[in-house]
Amino acid sequence: MSVAVAEHVLTAEEYFALPDDGRHKELVRGRVVEMNMPGFEHGEICVTIASILRAFVSERGLGRVVGNDAGILTERDPDTVRGADVSYYSYARVPRGRRPKGYPGVSPELVIEVLSPTDTWARVLRKVSEYLEAGVIVVCVVEPNQGKLFLYRLDSPAEELTDEDQFTLPDVLPDFRVPVGRLFE
Prior knowledge:
The protein has helices at residues 12-17, 40-60, 121-133, and strands at 3-4, 24-28, 31-35, 63-67, 72-75, 80-82, 86-90, 110-114, 138-143, 148-152, 159-161, 166-169, 173-179. The chain is of the alpha+beta class. The protein has a single domain (37-184), classed as tt1808, chain A, CATH 3.90.1570. The strands form four sheets. Strands 4-7-8-9-10-11 form a six-stranded mixed β-sheet, with helices on both faces. A three-stranded antiparallel β-sheet has the order 1-3-2, with no helix packed on it. The chain has a two-stranded antiparallel ribbon with strand order 5-6. The longest helix has 21 residues, at 40-60. It is globular and about 45 Å long.
């Protein structure tokens, strides 16, 4: 369940400058929206996925893996900043060197969202659509209760993978391959 807490429409820059009050939230069309903390299982799956991706990306010097709801600007005027669980930016999109402060102004190639106990598919699919429209190439939604992974690409049908399938990303990380079941270990 989400509850709006901002009284006026904020820009992404104003949202970034807000003091950290320890609450889990996003900026949606200029309004700050609070969300429940997703819990232990969610956090462990996010760290597992981020660790697998980070190892792959680091070994090959491909880019940056970001987690912990770092913030992705998906819409402007009014602004929306979503907090992806895990995302990947190639060095082509966010060059080597100094890390960007705030939101980098470009979308990652890959976003991974792990469903939380309070998430609804309608809300998650709205986020998937926002990410794709903002330039994300692949959005993955992890469904822990069913041990499934759903992959979304612009203008393509969703792909559903089970724990017995191989998770590959040929359009983002060509040599990446991991059994889906490993994401839930």
